[in-house]
Batch of 2 targets.
Target 1
Amino acid sequence: MTTIVAIANEKGGVAKTTSTLSIGAALVESGQEILLVDLDPQANLTLALGIQPAQIRRSVADLLLGNTSVLSVSRETSVPGLDLIPASGEMLMVERFLYVRQNYEHLLRKALAKADMYSMVLLDCPPSLGALTINALTASNLLIIPTQCEFFSAHSLREMLDLIRNIRQRSNPSLRYRVMITMLGKTRVHRTLQEQIRSAFGNAVFATAIENDTKLRECPVVGKPITEYAPESRAAQQYRALAQELEEYVHQAIAQPA
Ligand SMILES: Nc1ncnc2c1ncn2[C@@H]1O[C@H](COP(=O)(O)OP(=O)(O)OP(=O)(O)O)[C@@H](O)[C@H]1O
Ligand SMILES: [Mg+2]
């Protein structure tokens, strides 16, 4: 069974793209085949894998519009086992088009039904709650919400919970979610806010938190994930631990529902 996981938060710059790539790269280390999908018109995930959006012929836009299949739009990356469906500048236009299509929420879910050669599909969402994010959440078994321990994070977490409620009612009753703490620093504010998030969300928060690590900022420059760029770094080890937690969660909660 293929598990589809959306990585989304309407708040920008919370490490959605970094986490999508790092978790995917950590999962392939155990021999799995993983598909990453860049759903963001900014195409940061595509760029982070060293691919120029201006030079690609087919993108996730074509997949959403039904012009192509997963097999013909996905491509191998420099990381063995890790494939990508890239984004392009057309995405902004596509997002506007989607709303006028009937049952537009379900377009991605239908397209990804043919992604069953992968054990997991990770969807990197844009920092907005538009048609692309709604498509991602409708297609997904699980939503991961990366969050920083900052003052404004509580507000965006509440917005995300509203969205989950909405999606469960409208298009995906079985959507689950998990919160992951990213870019954690050593200040007292970070410690306090981490405790607040953990006590508010309980075991819906991954035990592993990703700390600040400048090596993660260097990865896009070399077009490699952290597990390859700095395999022994703290960030690489933390993302491996997080990927393992994710696998355990999928195994006990999604792959074999009670
Ligand atoms: N743990 C970390 N430590 C230090 N820097 C980080 C960490 N995680 C991510 N970054 C950096 O923070 C910036 C934002 O990360 P990223 O692009 O992954 O966020 P995003 O949520 O995808 O942003 P957007 O909302 O624009 O899509 C990037 O420069 C990234 O390299
Ligand atoms: Mg991003």
Target 2
Amino acid sequence: MLGGSAVMAGITRRLDPVARAERTTLITGPTGAGKDVIAQSLHARSRRCHEPFIAVHCAALPDSLVEAELFGHAKGAFTGAFQARGGLVRTAERGVLFLDEIDSLSLGAQAKLLRFLETGEFRAVGSDQSEKSDTWVIVATNQDLRGRVQSQLFREDLLYRLEVVRIDVPPLCQHRDDITVLTAHFLGEVGCQHKYFSPAACRRLASYEWPGNVRELRHRVESAALLCDATEISEDELGLPEATEPATAASGERTVKATLWQMVEERGMTLAQATAACEKMLVSAALEAELNNRARAAARLGINVRTIYKKLSVPPGSS
Ligand SMILES: Nc1ncnc2c1ncn2[C@@H]1O[C@H](COP(=O)(O)OP(=O)(O)O)[C@@H](O)[C@H]1O
Ligand SMILES: [Mg+2]
């Protein structure tokens, strides 16, 4: 993990104590800020470093399967369950289970997870036998979990449990001092350590907003280095949007397209999964715009309140 800025040094200092304590840990921060890197670093620094690190993208798991994926299922638990199967909690035994995008876990799965975190016990779907697993659970989110508690999409008791050990990763624009070191590192990663950025390019790297954070920096630096024939990489080759470019509909669409494609690539999503994820985001945006008033959010989207629950995969009546 790179970054000598005061903020990043503050985070790095906490990693060893957190890794020693092995308590359930919540990592928050915007997309691309380095949440995965921190989770992996915690694993590497812990006594569990030679045991599995199992990462789960909660948003990519359909709600109907998420409990079975995490906790396993008994034979005959549902149609097609011809054999009992262990879940990821079992696979991660003695190691780390990293639950990314924890905000998208269904309320049912949240309840089971809370029980597991508190007792170390869980039940496979369709089984009445309690089992135990020794797994260090690390979770991450780029969402405001408090806001989701308010809209009754996230369990408050689970949030209290998760907040005990918490690492907040700042957006890159809040630790610009690290840009130089990160840039040099990413140049080296693609074998271009002999290349460098022109003074204008350096200024641009230092002043750009980086909405996609370290991930965006990495992509920009690596592709500029690989595509540029000269040793000096110019500002143009960075391909960053004009500083003063007004957010036109066309540039907005380009950004949305790039972001969606990145999501599909990173999570290996199908069109149907990506569409469902987009609907979820729009419903959640409508809820935010309407201050969590579900009736008004539904009206804005031209759907009924039940559909809001369905799109967010919250069973009706669970609030
Ligand atoms: N502190 C860091 N040092 C080196 N690389 C980093 C750092 N933070 C992020 N990265 C790189 O940026 C990219 C995005 O990081 P990631 O941890 O996947 O972000 P997040 O999980 O928050 O979306 C990855 O390629 C990662 O290697
Ligand atoms: Mg991530």
